[in-house]
Amino acid sequence: MHLPLNENLVEKLRDYTIRIGSTVTLRDLDTRTLETYTLVRPDEADIVRNRVSSFSPLGLAIGGRSVGEIVEVDAPGGWLHLEIESVFAADDSTLIADDAP
Quick one: pLDDT at residue 76? Predict the structure, then answer.
């Protein structure tokens, strides 16, 4: 059985995944701290402004992921265990997914 593709649904689902331009809040599962980052192209990366390259270890770990997923990052200071808490759409600042109760 082949179901017709709902273009609006496809677009909404695309917005729930982290991609370049998405702003993401991550919870460190070891320290319980929260950090917010924006995933950017490598030439736009600026860690002081929490702009993370899509090709960095963190960027590679979170790209294509969504709220509620847990990722492990092999960072220079050791392994990080992070949960994706929220994702803001890449094209605006509307909260599109949140793990809050």
Answer: 86
Distances (CA, A) of 29 to 65, 79, 85: 17, 11, 11
DSSP H helical segments within 1-100, as ranges? 7-15, 57-62
**48-69 pLDDT, tens per residue?**
999 999 999 999 999 999 999 9
Q: Computed from CA positions of residues 77, 83, 85, 90, in that sequence, does the dihedral angle turn out positive or negative?
A: positive
Structure tokens at 52: 């993370």
Q: Which domains does the chain have, with CATH numbers?
A: 23-90 (3.10.50.30)
Structure-token match 């273009």, residue found: 7
